[in-house]
């Protein structure tokens, strides 16, 4: 009898509860950030909070559908799902609608659909399928290249749509591959390039090259396993190429507004007048967001009592900058609550991923956690001014049907796979 009872309640309810906590609390903040006037009609479907209610209601039907489908379907048809998703991205170049400079939406009637949000799930399924194939060895360079191609194709298509934020998310799959045995030198190379990029922008290519030379020299004499001369020379040349290449990319390739965002983040601009001008123009959202968060204090101003939120000082606050509403109205305690829920969700997904009997389910689970983590880390870091401003929503929290449904599909496919692990022996 116990086995029969558990069979009907085998879904991981902890993950489901955490998911709906974020969705529910997110809607409260969307309501606060988007309502107008003194009286509120909670079913005003012309307002963002009313539309989000519709999206949430439809999410229940989507969840039922996802959990009703046989778990093996997602593995068997992962390649088909990936191909359809890539075709939907390609179709944007012909039929896409341009919004805020990005051609990332299909206009269907009175609503828009953003296929790049769903492409993340399709890529996670495709990566899980290929990596778990019996003929794939992630330590094999040829298989690494094939895996990178699966990831790079949607990233390039999204980048060509001028959606930099969504493009960066595909870097999340590095964590997945590292878990599955990707050689450690990839991690070393990735961190080194990131550090060289930041240092070259902050201190210049020449100083960065000198720092790289000093570090290599110290590594050569202090390490037990010394580098050979030709290895040291190759690494130094690569470091020089990265340092000067990043500087060229920053000055010649990036758009002026992108340069300004990086300049503000790294504190490259020293002119007080230029800094003030930045805060009044492209950095206005960030400046007002920081003011809203700091004004919340420890306990916050109270639900719908945030002066900067109700005064609409932060443009588009119900979307990418929704966390500033949390900071102002719920204070440090409310912000910590949101962060803790996200951390618990991530830890729970990683825990479940490790319990999977099939490699496909495990790899997909790590893909889910990695995608959510990148969104969570970048969005909150952006809103607080810790990283450059990048247009990326807070999962399950920011306004938008495409985002909500895409994360619902991403998570509940894994919940379905997890519920089937007892049959994977």
The proportion of strand residues reads under 5%
Q: How far is the first residue's CA from the last residue's CA?
A: 22 Å
Instruction: Count structural domains.
Output: 3
**Element-level helix/strand string:** HHHHHEEEHHHHHHHHHHHHHH
Give a quick account of the main beta sheet: strands, pairing sense, barrel closure: 3 strands, antiparallel
What's the β-strand tally? 3
Structural class: mainly alpha
Strand order of the largest sheet: 1-2-3
What does this entry look like structurally?
- The structure is a single chain.
- With about 425 residues, this protein is mainly alpha-helical.
- It folds into 3 domains: about 10-70 and about 255-395 and about 415-425, no CATH class; about 75-160, no CATH class; about 185-255, no CATH class.
- Helices cover about 70% and strands about 5% of the residues.
């Amino acid at each position: 009898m116990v086995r029969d009872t558990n069979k009907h309640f085998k879904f991981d309810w902890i993950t489901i509860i955490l998911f709906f906590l974020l969705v529910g609390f997110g809607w409260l903040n969307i309501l606060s950030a988007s309502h107008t006037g003194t009286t509120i009609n909670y079913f005003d479907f012309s307002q963002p909070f009313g539309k989000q209610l519709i999206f949430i209601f439809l999410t229940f039907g989507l969840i039922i559908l996802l959990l009703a489908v046989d778990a093996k379907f997602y593995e068997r048809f992962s390649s088909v799902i990936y191909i359809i998703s890539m075709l939907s991205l390609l179709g944007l170049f012909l039929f896409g609608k341009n919004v805020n400079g990005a051609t990332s939406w299909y206009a269907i009637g009175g609503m828009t659909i953003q296929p790049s949000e769903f492409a993340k799930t399709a890529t996670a399924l495709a990566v899980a399928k290929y990596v778990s194939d019996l003929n794939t060895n992630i330590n094999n360079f040829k298989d690494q290249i094939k895996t990178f191609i699966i990831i790079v194709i949607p990233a390039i298509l999204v980048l060509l749509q001028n959606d930099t934020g969504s493009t960066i998310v595909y870097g999340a799959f590095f964590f997945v591959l590292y878990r599955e045995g990707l050689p450690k030198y990839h991690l070393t190379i990735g961190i080194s390039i990131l550090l060289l990029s930041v240092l070259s922008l902050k201190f210049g290519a020449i100083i960065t090259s000198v720092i790289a030379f000093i570090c290599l020299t110290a590594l050569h004499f202090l390490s037990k396993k010394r580098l050979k001369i030709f290895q040291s020379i190759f690494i130094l040349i690569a470091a020089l190429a990265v340092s000067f290449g990043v500087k060229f990319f920053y000055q010649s390739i990036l758009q002026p507004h992108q340069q300004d965002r990086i300049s503000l983040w790294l504190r490259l601009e020293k002119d007080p007048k230029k800094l003030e001008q930045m805060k009044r123009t492209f950095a206005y959202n960030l400046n007002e967001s920081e003011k809203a968060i700091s004004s919340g204090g420890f306990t916050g101003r109270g639900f719908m009592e945030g002066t900067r939120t109700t005064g609409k000082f932060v443009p588009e606050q119900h979307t990418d900058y929704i966390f500033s509403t949390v900071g102002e109205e719920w204070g440090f305690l409310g912000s910590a609550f949101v962060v803790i829920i996200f951390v618990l969700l991530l830890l729970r997904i990683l825990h479940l991923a490790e319990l999977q009997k099939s490699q496909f389910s495990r790899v997909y689970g790590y893909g889910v956690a990695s995608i959510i983590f990148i969104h969570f880390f970048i969005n909150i870091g952006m809103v607080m001014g810790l990283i450059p401003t990048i247009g990326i929503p807070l999962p399950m929290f920011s306004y938008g049907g495409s985002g909500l449904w895409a994360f619902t599909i991403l998570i509940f496919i894994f919940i379905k796979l997890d519920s089937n692990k007892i049959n994977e022996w």
